[in-house]
Amino acid sequence: MTKVGANATGEGTGPDGIGGQVAVVTGASRGLGHDLALAFAKAGAVVAVGARRTPDVAELARQIEADGGQAFALELDVSRAESARQAAQAVVERCGRIDILVNNAGLGFNHDALDVTEDDWDTIMDVNLRGLFFTTQAMARPMVSRGYGRVVNIGSQAGIVGIPRHAVYSASKGGVAMLTKVLALEWAACGVTVNTLAPTFIRTPGTAERLDDPAFAAQILADIPVGRFGTTADVAAAALFLASPGAGLITGVTLPVDGGWTAR
For a disulfide at 31, which of 65, 124, 171, 204, Cβ 3.0-4.6 Å? Predict the structure, then answer.
């Protein structure tokens, strides 16, 4: 069993209280999820880095360990509820508990609404909404039983405001925002908070090609009052706060990390 240091009330070490807590990060093989796993490890958490295939995150886990952190690769295909249940069991067997779940895994692609197929709808919903729910259900069971936990969902500004050609994606992220409210109400008395972050366009290796297009960049930046794209560090800072013991009075909230886009 991996040695962990947070006590039964979730109080960890370090200035943010994350140190020693057990954090599961889904979709950690690349981009935002990869950097969220690094951020939680740097804050002192024991990080289960989740991906559909453990080889996809094995190097990330090794990197964290080499830097003095604690991490392990976790097979977790969020589109399959049984995979989520098995992953939750594996984390509890290894670490004794789950303190934090960061639901980062997600899909997104653009379609005109008239061109959306049933397969398009099912593919996105199976990961972004159905998958998120059943992953949360599996990981939250031991949290609820223990009386402490933090769930941080990665939503999108597209779940708050309409964005053309994002009908299915926006519907999935809007669903996450409402699901967050319901789960927060159900689990509040159990010491488990549930919140969502709603980022704007975040620069990652996967988005760089679009964001480096001058015409596209100008169009998007015109809608971001602070005048810049988001970074994975922006999202990680907000996630670490919502996952901390100090955020215990915050639940059921969708917090934009969008430079003011949704304030218009």
Answer: 204
